[in-house]
Amino acid sequence: MTHESDISSADAGAGAAAPPPLHVLIVDDHSIFRSGLRADLDASLDVVAEAATVDDAVALIAQHVPDVVLLDVHLPGGAGGGGAEVLQRSSALLDRVKFLALSVSDSAEDVVGVIRAGARGYITKGSSGAEVSRAVRTVAAGDAVFSPRLAGFVLDAFGAVAGEQAAADDELDRLSAREREVMRLIARGYAYKEVASELFISIKTVETHVSAVLRKLQFSSRHELTAWALSRKLL
Amino acid sequence: MTPPAPLVSRRTPGVPTRMLRPRGAMLGGVCAGLAEHMQWPVNWVRAGAVVFTLLGGGAALLYVWLWALTPLEPATGETDAAASAHRAFPVAPVLVGFAAVAAVIALVTAVVGAYAPAAMVALAALVLTAAAVAWSLLFDRNDPKRSERYGVATRTTAAVGLALTGVLLLATSPPVPATVIAVVMIVGAAGVLAAPAIVRLWTSLLAERAARAQEESRAEVAAHLHDSVLQTLALIQNRAGASSEIARIARAQEHELRDWLFAGTKPSGADFAAQLREVALELELQHAVRFDVVTTGDFTDRSFPAVLAAAREAMLNAARHAGGEVSVYVELSASDLDVYIRDRGPGFDIGAMPEGRMGVRGSIIGRMARHGGTATVTSDENGTQVHLHSPVVAHSGSRSAPSPQSAPSPQSAPEPSEPRASSADTQGTEGRER
């Protein structure tokens, strides 16, 4: 859940120059939810297609190559892998199509499963249309979207609460001091802009930190993450 | 030897009754039942039965006839109606004894060279042993007064004797009929010996399969509800606006359903994170507010009553005065517990706060100070933030916070925490959330 007066402030200026609408594909097996979300998304987003199953989603993503896919974590069809399976089967397109995971559940396995499969962010279904729209634009711009709960999980999984800290920035298995501060503030419900002013850094720097954490979450071989992913057959 | 005495007294004179077999019987309960019915002395009936059986077998036929057609007397009290009849006569061991005698005769005749009669007697031994095993399995196993060991001993003796007879009979290199009987003996003995293990294996297999089927159907129901009902509830919350009445009801329902679906994974006992979530749920039902509770650290078996009470007060303030979205973040490290409660209300001037405002001054700042912690309240036009901090005794610690005042207030009571293994389960907190 990103909050009011969020990262979109940078986009607001660009919005005046009327950028081409972003192409969005909604993947969710619940038709009421799809239509509700479609109605709620703001005008800068163009929903090109909707899919209800894993197989439909993979086919439609390959066909339309949208900018952003709003992906439900729990999906019927395919081999039963849900949203993570869609990501795995569309992995060839990952550099052109950005995935934003949507779920009703905030459990770690749902979140981390799709993030490690390649999603650029995670947002709960309780979020408003404006929040989802902002998150879509953030993801499309190449940044990551973290919910407070996901930030909390990251702090736990990387041992940041216990005081572990990365010595070098490129270390994948630990968070740097700055990343830890950013994650803590996001977990406390701060929007990116608020994080920036709290830490006296620019929004762009906050986004860089968040993206770095997302990368670590995706590629770290830290044993808690790996053991956890293995136990759920995500790797 | 004699059947239970009450049998006679149970009968009302002049009222015709059906003949019944008593549950406490010698063999089948036929003689006792007949004696009861005809008002004859039971020992005379038994003697007559034995005599007439030996004289030509007529009594044995009648016995079997009556056994088959006479109903068992109704079960009394707590005894299991289907399977609780006691037969005092040790039929199975006696049959095994007869079989042993027959086997010895068969072997002797075989050694002498009279193979034809030897085969007949061996067959009789085989049939007697089979009868003993059948009796043991059919009757003795369900008999409350026969121990498990009694049955196992009987059947094992029967099987071993049978195998021995078969082997010895084969050793005399007899002609085909006797050889066939000997082989059947050995195979039968092996079957009797192996049967319990096979039955046990089969039963456990069935039980396991049933358990798995049950688990699968539960998972299916959970998955279905997850995909349909929870989605709908999320949609309702989404469309109705975060803090509306309808959204709050839908949210409470969602939590209830989640708890029910994942009841097996709930932590037991004290758990600060779970307690804080409960507080959040309770306040959400009473006020137009939505708490986003995020916890990090391992809270298993750890509770901090004073911090919980202060956090509750701060959350209540946020619910009352700000509403909307409130973020709650809890961080438990080896030495500290930090709770941040942040709302996005209009804020208030802390300096202008009247002395009498018990909520913030007494229940939050004062309480934290009494328990060795601190509470910091900051407020501006973007909202109010309450930061509770409390030092924590490391893992094996049993007090929530060292209290500078030694007054034994309920909040400083020792928490029921156990020394635990230090393996940090990083997924624990999040995983339990489901």
From TrEMBL, chain A:
Q: Which domain of life is it from?
A: Bacteria
User: Which residues belong to any copy of the HTH luxR-type domain?
Assistant: 168-233
A Pfam family hit: Response_reg
Q: Which residues form the Response regulatory domain?
A: 23-140
Q: Name one GO molecular function term.
A: DNA binding
Keyword DNA-binding in the entry? The reply is yes
GO biological-process terms attached to the record: phosphorelay signal transduction system; regulation of DNA-templated transcription
Asked whether the UniProt record includes Cytoplasm among its keywords, one would answer: no
Q: Which UniProt keywords apply?
A: DNA-binding, Phosphoprotein
Q: Which residues form the signal peptide?
A: none
Q: Which InterPro entries does this entry report, sorted A to Z?
A: CheY-like_superfamily, NreC/VraR/RcsB-like_REC, Sig_transdc_resp-reg_C-effctor, Sig_transdc_resp-reg_receiver, Tscrpt_reg_LuxR_C, WalR-like
Where 4-aspartylphosphate occurs along the chain? 72
Q: State the name under which the record lists this protein.
A: Response regulator transcription factor
- Give the species: Ruicaihuangia caeni
TrEMBL record, chain B:
Answer whether the UniProt record assigns the keyword Iron to this protein: no
Recorded GO MF terms:
kinase activity
- The UniProt regions of compositional bias labelled Low complexity, in chain numbering, are 414-424
Q: What is this protein called?
A: PspC domain-containing protein
Transmembrane segments annotated in the record for this chain? 44-68, 89-112, 118-138, 150-172, 178-202
* Annotated Histidine kinase/HSP90-like ATPase domain residues: 310-392
Give me the ranges of the annotated region Disordered.
Answer: 391-434
SUPFAM superfamilies, per the entry: ATPase domain of HSP90 chaperone/DNA topoisomerase II/histidine kinase
